[in-house]
Amino acid sequence: MLKKVIYALGAIALLFGLWGFYERLAFGEEYVSYGSAVVWGLWVAVYFLFGGIAIGSFLVASLEYLFGIEAFQGYGKPALWTSLVTLAVAMMSVGFDLGHMERIWKAFLQPNFNSGVVADVWSYTIFGVLTLIALILAVRQPKNAALKIVMGLGFVVALFAAGSPGKFLGDNATRLYWHAALLPMQFVFMALLTGAAMTLAVQAFVSPREGTKQASSILSLASVVLLVISLYFVWAYFSQSLYGNIPSLKDSINELIRGQYAWLFWGVEILIGAIVPLLVLIQPKLAQNQLWAGLMGLFILIGNGVARYLIIVPGLNVTVLNNIETAYQGPGLTLSYSPSPVEWAVAAGALGIVILALLLGADFLPLYSKKSEA
Amino acid sequence: MSNPDEANLLSKYASEAFAGLVAPVLDGLEISTLPAVDLPVKEDVLVRMERELKTALAKPASERRWVMVIDLRKCVGCTSCTVACIAENKLPPGVVYRPVLVEEIGTYPNTAMKFLPRPCMQCDKPPCTEVCPVNATYKNEEGVVVIDYDQCIGCRSCIAACPYGARSFDFGGTYLQNTPDNLDFMLGQSGADGYERLADFEYSEPRVRQGQNSPVGNARKCHFCLHRLAEGMLPACTTTCIGRATYFGDANDPGSLVSELISGNNVTRLKEELGTEPRVYYLV
Amino acid sequence: MTDKTIPTKSLSRRDFLKVSGASGATAALLGNLPSAFKKVQKTIAAAGEGNFFEAKPENIIYGVCLQCNTQCTIKGKIQDGVLVKVDGNPYSPNNMLPPVDYGTPLADAALLDGKLCPKGQATIQTQYDPYRLVKVLKRAGKRGENKWQVISFDQAINEIVNGGKLFSSIGEDRVVPGFKDVLVAKEAKVISALAADAAAVVSKKMTLDDFKSKHASDLDLLIDPDHPDLGVKNNQFIFQAGRIEPGRNNYAQRFTLNSCGSINWYDHTTICEQSHHIAYTYATAQYSGGKWAPGPNNMKPDILNAEFVIIWGTSPFEANFGPTIMSETITKSLTERNFHFAVVDPRLSKTAAKGWWIPVQPMGDLPLAMGLIRWILENKRYDVTFLSNANKGAALAHGEKSWTNSSWLVKVDPSTGSGQAGHAGALLHGSQLGLVTSQTTTDASGNSVTTWLATNGTTYNLDPFVVLVNGTPTLFDPADDKNPVSGDLLVNTTLQGIAVKSGLQVLLDEASVNSIDDWAKMAGVDTNTLVKLADEYTSHGKKAGVEFYRGAVQHTNGYYTGQALITLNLLVGNLDWKGGLSAGGGAWNAIGNKDKPFDLGGDHPGKIGAFGIKMTREGVAYEKTTLFQDYPAQRPFYPYTSNVYQEVIPAAYAQYPYPAKILWLHMGTPALAAPAGAEQIKMLTDTDKFPLFIADDIVIAETSMYADYLFPDLTYVERWAFLGSPPPDPTKNIRVRQPIAAPIPEIVTVDGEPMPVSMESIMIAIGKALSLPGIGKGGFDKHGDFNRPEDYYLRGIANIAFGDKADGSDAVPDADDSEVAVFQTARAFLPKAVFDAAKWQSAAGDSMWRKVIYVMNRGGRFESFSKAYTGNFLGHPYGKQMNLFVEPVATGKDSITGKFFSGTAHFEPIHNSTGTLVDDKDMPFHLITYKEVTGGQSRTISNYWTQGGMGIVPTNYVKMNPDDAMGLGIHDGDTVQLFSRTNSDGILDLGNGQRESVQGKVKLTQTIRPGVIMVSWSYGHWAYGARDVTIDNQIVRGDPRRAVGLCSNPVLLLDEGTKTTCLTDPIGGSASFYDTKVKVQKV
Ligand SMILES: Nc1nc2c(c(=O)[nH]1)N[C@H]1C(S)=C(S)[C@@H](COP(=O)(O)OP(=O)(O)OC[C@H]3O[C@@H](n4cnc5c(=O)[nH]c(N)nc54)[C@H](O)[C@@H]3O)O[C@H]1N2
Ligand SMILES: Nc1nc2c(c(=O)[nH]1)N[C@H]1C(S)=C(S)[C@@H](COP(=O)(O)OP(=O)(O)OC[C@H]3O[C@@H](n4cnc5c(=O)[nH]c(N)nc54)[C@H](O)[C@@H]3O)O[C@H]1N2
Ligand code: SF4
Ligand code: SF4
Ligand code: SF4
Ligand code: SF4
Ligand code: SF4
Ligand SMILES: [Mo]
Q: Which CATH code for domain A2-372?
């Protein structure tokens, strides 16, 4: 029953998404709300979120294949599949964000290695290829030296890739909100966190199975630790910025603390995305309950999605030169951003694809051992 | 702007862009200390700059150093440069290469208004080029930061990286979209849109902006009107400037007007502290 | 033509190679093919590839801008038959300081673009406005309902000429009069006889009965035989133009006055800055033949050489005459030499931002000026020598070019009689002191000549004026350059029982009615500032001046304010000096005369001299009409001014002095542009008062939407005109407007000649339909036919090319073959209905043709800038008299109050025509208006680059000082509604049940004086593409981007006397724009 509901939700999301895909492909970026001032918006947040999940999920798989941790036996294949699916969707989302996605090959064949984007695209691509190989190997022959090597390589690339979005934002030295060495690190921890959270969510809603109490506990504990670290990051970051007292930076932070994003920041990122899961998951009983843990996993994912959004947008909707945004007015030149319907649709489509692919994968791919299937 | 904090806000926003550029007009009468000379009106400076342009063009490209000088004392905030640039390059809505920033400073009656035209600085150390994943934007051999529209994948990294907000993205719209069309008693959109539909000549490449073809989907920016320079014509913003506040030329030519102007002690550049080494100089 | 432009749809291989260049080609390929790890860097085209259309003279035609009335010369660049770029004309002093040599080859000039303001740049979007009319529309619903039907040009002409039951299909049973019914008087001879005798009746040289019996058979030609001075019925056709430019106005006057015989020709100057003009025309009036002939109407300080200028109620960086030509003179002077300036304006304009801002109170201009005058006079800071010079001889003797009447004696009415006690009225003449006697003789050719003989034997050919020279009455002739006479400046005495004062004394008395402190208080500035300003102004000798425009004069006391500001110039004796007051360089004569190739005014067989009293009762004194009974007149008379735009429609509606039959509105929008003009909407919808209302416009606009027939017109880049030098230009020039874009209006055939629909073609068509004189075959007499617009304009250009010397020695060179080729190639994209080389050549005449080409290839004729100055003087000095005391005004009376006007600057508070003061104490805010540099009147909302809902100034606001807003709890971005005493509902009523409130968004700013709010102009459109219209049952949607912002004119005050017209200056005729106080309410 729950599964049917989830299937239906996925299908609805994808349907809405199909309209968005059509609009995007037929009319380019005419109907998006990001622009020349706020150059990236929801789609890049989606990219960051799913990219992070992909990496986190891969790392979960590595617990089985690389580190051979007992409790995670059987988690490997679903985690690799999750990683692959979310990575694909992440790539699609950022592809739509490009003015000329048909030229993406140039990033491979005519790359500028000094560019953060190239580092990002390449590391994600290599990571994706490794994940795919790992998944194939894992399906064919779980106990395999080659798999270990691939997983080992993947592990390194994944850590690099995890921080890369943070790096490429941080490259913008004039945007103080991003230009903090903390940022790549923050992204790495976010990836880990979302990997754990995603696994909790997947096991609860996609493939409920038995004998994973231990894994649940470990994942919950990991989530708790990572949440605390994340909160520490936020605190370190905010307090530094606020005490540093540079107006342009303070403006961005204040937008979160008491400005237009306060409800998202306090309500979603902090309360739903961190405090509630923390309170729930530190209780061993609840942490071991798949549904509770899965729900908290979802909360964390939502909170993390918002956290990504709140890294991207406030870094952009501050003026780089005072009065520039009133000097000439036209589409894309304002500092205020909220996603357009097309953007929402594409994001929903991405979500729909992920949901459906996970469900279909669980139902039709040899990801789970027969006995553990629900 | 109704609370007293606004005064602070105003002074706060008397921002880095204008730091030090605020002429002392706040207090009433300012007697000119300049000499009583007859102005040289034998020749418009455009003619001189045009002549110097020819000299510069005779040299190999790499030996020219194009710079722009904007005299903020002379800028009257008319935005003619903004519009001339739009017309010259057939820019679509939302794409603007040279906005003029207007800033009000102070409290009545000690109020001032400042104007700051902002083309691309053509930075000698541009933060915008290295971020480009595909080398689509780079400093060309005459030092102008250009964008290869056929190469650009439209990732907008360069836009985020520019500290001057000098780049904008072409999302594909037109000024006349959604206006009436196909009427025999009125001109209608398709009869009217030649000025934005015919080929533009940026980088001397006639290019029709159509559908999702480049430059739609690309980052765009001021290019010092390379296509005009190639013909021996000064940039459109320079020629049209009614305050005659904008100058252009080869700073490698010690005799050029721009060399003369930037050797004064009233020269500044925007966000000098970043070390981007702009090639646009402001006189204050 | 083959290589004219780059192909636009696709790149040919040749172009591709050319564009990308040798190395570029490889690079471009790399851009298209995968090539791993290559740094991809394209090189741009090398210099001189010559591919760029803008660089070639074959793609260039020089024209004239009209986004604002500065009418700068422009360089139009044509790509694939589309005008895609407009720049400044390097040959012209409008766009270059100084321009290139007139002989510069076209190819060189092609590479050099002159300066141009942002509106000029946006010309393209005015030209290619999707809402531009192509076909003639006829009303298919009630007036203003915006239901239309497309009809053919021929049908339209036929209907408006012949009249009839034109609207029976929409249920209007009335018979509409056509031109044929109105233009009943046709014989020039009959009309001039009626005119002469009507004048005799007025001057009581003939009785009305005698008149009636003498003209019994023609009485039915008159509007009212009991008032023959009202003129013939033809006057019931009114041609009301908003903006109509020189050249075009001559064309339209030729038609209205001399082909149709109607006196009712108007333009819009009173809603513009007429009191400024009128103050100048009287200050520059010359006395001859016992009368004062008005002089030039616009002078400006020579900023390029001045040291200190007061810029008063105007903003040369944003408006004035105008940004393109004036800005650089200021910025250059400001940064390169010892120049500075003050700006008197309640708002910190962009101009004030660079100068010394004096935020005057809106009703405070005249007090401030009077205070300055008082200080200068009391502190003897005026140029005594200059002002003492009473005639030309004295001027020359003292190294001046011009002189004033400051020392001339004026008679002062001691008490009773018809005058007012103490009123300084007429100037004193020698005969009145018995110092001369007149004698009339007959000269050789039989004309009687009167001379005046003085007791000392001197003869004068006028009754000489009188000054005191060291107390002794001395006679002089102002034009006498041999016998210098300098008079005592401050005189207040009695000569032979006649109380007299000198002009300067009259001024001093006027300035002394208030203390300096009081003047300052009334002006809303502190005394220190006033004194500092006066001191500074008088510390630069002749290199100081006062520049003013609308802000100072669009008040009910605008004329006096203008006069006071001119007086300030006279006090420092700056006239004609380098750095002083300049009348401009003048222009070549295009209209022509007997000594020119053509005489566009005189060559008019059967020319009718229109006569009668104008609908607005302008240019005639109430007392000199048969309508005179006693004061007050039924509606005001405006003896000193003309073109009282705001009064045309209300007067016709009031049917005073007579009813109207046909109203033709050309390029005007009184309902939007005039103060309280929206009041005229209900008048225009009255088909009894306006039986036939036709308009020509480029779109369906705010006032033309009420018309019965709406004709498309050509824009300023499609049509013709010739315009003299703008006053800021010190050299002689004339600009030539010519078609630089293909016409948008449909091409029709008028009597076999194809031409686009335009004001010109409508006039030709009406003229031919009714065989009006001066149109068609032999229209220019022996100088040819008048079948096409070019038959007029090209002949004007031929006059320009010929020059001003009868022997032709002032002619331009012939265009050589290559120039002729460029001329032809550049125009090849124009349809034959516009450009037909053979027809053009035959209009201009073979002998002038190549000279005409030479002029057109350069967009006009421009003198070398080396002629701008001669030594310490302007190169084109005015060199005549200026009047500090204006006798004709001093001897005239207000038609309502019956009171004399003043001869010098004089303080007059803001008042209604009835004389009651305007003060509205219960209204807290003074409402003013101003122009953004991006806004061109009501004509630029289609310019999306600059104005229409996006771009540079997307919308306008109600701008107010935060201090004022705080008290009312108003915040930035709030919407507020405006209310005034005479628009207490704050409503704009568009008729047919369409009511809107006068409201807008608030923007708080420190750039305005507290207590004053401002609303910029050029927004608040209710038509012009902002509104849905139905044409041939098809709905054309309005564009919401054009409906942004507000127009504050609907809340401006109505006059208490007329109740239908705004407050008006009784002398200058200016409509009041800045005297209304309002209430602001948050909605
Ligand atoms: N941008 C632009 N330029 C134009 C035109 C245009 O449409 N747009 N049109 C042209 C035409 S037709 C004209 S007539 C000229 C007009 O040229 P200007 O007279 O320079 O222009 P306005 O903005 O109408 O002038 C009004 C000025 O007076 C100020 N003002 C308002 N009330 C008062 C007052 O009571 N006292 C004083 N001292 N100042 C006051 C306003 O703030 C404003 O700065 O511009 C010409 N140039
Ligand atoms: N609030 C406020 N009101 C003002 C002013 C202000 O500063 N503030 N300024 C005043 C001044 S200075 C002036 S001069 C007046 C101007 O007032 P008007 O002369 O009455 O108005 P315009 O806006 O010049 O022109 C009006 C009409 O011309 C039409 N039109 C435009 N181009 C063409 C064309 O090429 N041919 C024809 N046939 N029609 C055309 C337009 O559609 C419009 O209906 O406005 C005055 N009104
Ligand atoms: S101003 Fe911006 S876009 Fe221009 S070169 Fe510098 S960084 Fe690059
Ligand atoms: S938008 Fe284009 S030019 Fe800019 S960084 Fe991306 S690919 Fe390079
Ligand atoms: S140089 Fe050319 S591209 Fe750059 S701002 Fe000026 S007009 Fe625009
Ligand atoms: S055109 Fe010249 S005066 Fe006008 S805003 Fe631009 S730089 Fe300033
Ligand atoms: S000042 Fe500007 S709008 Fe006015 S005529 Fe000149 S270019 Fe055109
Ligand atoms: Mo005007």
A: 1.20.1630.10
